[in-house]
């Protein structure tokens, strides 16, 4: 079974693409939405919630035969109401995928290049404080190899000089608390890269990021339940929670996630809408947000640290199931996972209203439950070169 990211099912060559489609056609007849022997989806979600202490969550699995979805728990502990398929979650850094797509659309249109320097897009107050800004280019921002310090997200969101929780990109770059810069050319995850990309999109495309993502991605894909910034009174909104550090239970995380309009974590959405985005990238039909070759470029690893690789807006993770492509996110009381497994042609999405950090990855448990050993043997035979 190939483990070369460049030979993702998106296909680096025509031969690879044809082979991938033949594999997928064979897989359609071998599997339903869930492989034979997989645990029921609601049972898997119950185990995830128990282990990771999520108040509420949605788990979705999408395959060529259709989609299964499970929901559990409450959307708001303070005013309990059940999580449903219509519940909207902030997806934290999974939203970086949309910022990357919009940026690469500009590249495809010839209005921006991957090697374009970033410095000309910034005004002096923003640029002078960012170490390595003079050497940073668009590809470095997309792949987290710019060396720029991580600003705002790892410090207080309300400052004496900026008491509001809502930040513009310019304010975040100028005032946000920053960590130390890293070495350019090496992968080091920094939210500043995507805050900057959102800033560049607004400069080049006009309007604010919400309008740009809506016009370029949400509307074409029919993602009608998705938005950048939402009203906290929305009855379908999940509320973020954090575990109390010194006693049992959770506390509200507040509106910081919903308030975000920056390119590093812009979106509130549903599992079904997020599935539409993932399908448009990895199993595209009539509606594409990017051409296949550009999606393949997103998935090629350009840097790696702590076992995690990164392309142009996509995380690249090697698992027992082969490579997976997508993104994870933790922010403001929310946790999100959105992944594509090309060797299984499966999309797996987890949205939860708790951002509990753990030494274990919820996807490890989900993969163990949904893709049992018997399925691995079958998939290896189908996917072998």
Overall geometric form: globular
* Number of alpha- plus pi-helical segments: 12
Helix content: 25-40%
Q: What's the CATH superfamily, by name?
A: DD-peptidase/beta-lactamase superfamily
Main pleated sheet: 8 strands, antiparallel
Strand content: 15-25%
Number of strands: 13
- The overall pLDDT, averaged over residues, is 84
Order of helices and strands: HHEEEHHHHHHEEEEHHEEEEEEHH
Radius of gyration using CA atoms only: 20 Å
- Specify the structural class: alpha+beta
As for the number of domains, it is 1
Which strands sit side by side, in order, in the main sheet? Answer: 2-1-13-12-11-10-9-8
Which stretches are poorly predicted, pLDDT < 50 over at least 5 residues? 1-31, 376-385
CATH fold title: Beta-lactamase
Architecture, according to CATH?
3-Layer(aba) Sandwich
Terminal-residue CA separation: 6 Å
Kindly provide the name of the CATH class: Alpha Beta
Transmembrane segments: 21-41
Domain Beta-lactamase-related: 41-362
Protein name: Beta-lactamase class C and other penicillin binding protein
Keywords: Membrane, Transmembrane, Transmembrane helix
Provide structural commentary.
It is globular, with a radius of gyration of 20 Å. Strands 2-1-13-12-11-10-9-8 form an eight-stranded antiparallel beta sheet, sandwiched between helices. It has helices at residues 14-30, 41-52, 96-108, 124-127, 138-143, 169-175, 191-205, 209-218, 271-282, 292-299, 362-370, 373-383, and strands at 56-63, 66-73, 89-90, 227-228, 241-243, 250-252, 267-269, 303-305, 308-310, 315-319, 322-331, 334-341, 346-352. The protein is 32% helix and 17% strand. Residues 1-31 and 376-385 have low confidence and may be disordered. It is built from twelve helices and 13 strands. The chain has one domain (56-382): DD-peptidase/beta-lactamase superfamily (Beta-lactamase, 3-Layer(aba) Sandwich), CATH 3.40.710.10. A hairpin with a 2-residue loop joins strand 10 and strand 11 (322-331). The longest helix has 17 residues, at 14-30. The protein is of the alpha+beta class. Residues 240-262 are annotated as: Disordered. The chain crosses the membrane at residues 21-41. Pfam families: Beta-lactamase.
């Amino acid at each position: 079974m190939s483990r070369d990211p460049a030979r993702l099912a998106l296909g680096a060559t025509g031969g690879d693409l044809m082979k991938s489609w033949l594999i997928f056609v064979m897989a359609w007849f071998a599997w339903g939405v869930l492989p034979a022997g997989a645990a029921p989806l609601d049972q898997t979600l119950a185990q995830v919630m128990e282990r990771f202490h999520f108040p509420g969550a949605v788990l979705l699995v999408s395959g060529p035969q259709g989609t299964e979805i499970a929901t559990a728990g409450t959307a708001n502990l303070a005013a309990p109401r059940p999580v449903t398929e219509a519940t909207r979650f902030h997806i934290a850094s999974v939203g970086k995928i949309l910022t990357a797509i919009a940026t690469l659309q500009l590249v495809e249109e010839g209005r921006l290049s991957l090697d374009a320097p970033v410095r000309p897009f910034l005004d002096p107050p923003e640029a002078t404080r960012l170490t390595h800004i003079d050497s940073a280019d668009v590809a470095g921002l997309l792949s987290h190899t710019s060396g720029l310090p991580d600003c705002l997200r790892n410090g207080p969101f309300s400052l004496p000089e900026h008491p509001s929780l809502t930040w513009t990109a310019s304010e975040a770059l100028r005032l946000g608390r920053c960590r130390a810069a890293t070495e350019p050319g090496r992968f080091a995850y920094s939210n500043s890269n995507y805050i900057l990309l959102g800033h560049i999109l607004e400069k080049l495309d006009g309007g604010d990021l919400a309008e740009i993502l809506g016009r370029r991605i949400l509307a074409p894909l029919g993602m009608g339940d998705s938005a950048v910034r939402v009203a906290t009174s929305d009855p379908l909104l999940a509320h973020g929670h954090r575990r109390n550090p010194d006693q049992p239970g959770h506390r509200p995380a507040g509106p910081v996630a919903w308030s975000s309009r920056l390119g590093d974590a812009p979106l509130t959405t549903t599992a079904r809408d997020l599935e539409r985005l993932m399908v448009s990238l990895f199993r595209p039909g009539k509606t594409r947000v990017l051409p296949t070759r550009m999606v393949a470029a997103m998935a090629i690893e350009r840097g790696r640290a702590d076992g995690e690789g990164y392309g142009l807006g996509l995380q690249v993770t090697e698992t027992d199931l082969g490579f997976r492509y997508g993104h994870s996110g933790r922010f403001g009381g929310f946790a999100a996972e959105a992944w594509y497994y090309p060797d299984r042609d499966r999309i797996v999405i987890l949205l939860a209203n708790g951002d509990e950090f753990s030494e274990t990855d919820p996807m490890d448990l989900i993969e163990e439950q949904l893709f049992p050993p018997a399925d691995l043997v079958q998939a290896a035979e189908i996917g072998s070169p």
